[in-house]
Amino acid sequence: MSTLEVTFVTSDRTVWTGQAAQVVVPAADGSMGILPRMQPTLAVLGEGAVRITGEDGTVSERTVHGGFVSVDSDIVTIGVDDAELVESAR
């Protein structure tokens, strides 16, 4: 099974890095799901939650207010100014 190599950073720290089964980001024009083998993509993020589902099924969710996401060859890079932890993440 393929996985995604995810790096999620703010301007001053790494928020999350590792292998993931899927990522959901708040693209400027709507929610965007990212799965392994996705076409290369570069998108501007709007306001909403970035949700990363790890290989073991754990979910990390953070609220963002803009930024970008880049996807290329199962490597996902998310860059934002700030990311606030969502307490109800599963």
From TrEMBL:
Tagged with keyword Transport: yes
One term of GO molecular function: proton-transporting ATP synthase activity, rotational mechanism
Keyword Zinc-finger: no
Cited SUPFAM superfamilies: Epsilon subunit of F1F0-ATP synthase N-terminal domain
Location of the ATP synthase F1 complex delta/epsilon subunit N-terminal domain: 4-83
InterPro entries named among the record's database cross-references: ATP_synth_F1_dsu/esu, ATP_synth_F1_dsu/esu_N, ATPsynth_dsu/esu_N
Location(s), subcellular: Cell membrane
Topology term for the membrane: Peripheral membrane protein
Keyword entries, A-Z: ATP synthesis, CF(1), Ion transport, Membrane, Transport
Transmembrane segments: none
Any single Gene Ontology cellular-component annotation: plasma membrane
Top-rank taxon, per record: Bacteria
NCBIfam families: PRK13442.1
Family: Belongs to the ATPase epsilon chain family.
Protein name: ATP synthase F1 complex delta/epsilon subunit N-terminal domain-containing protein
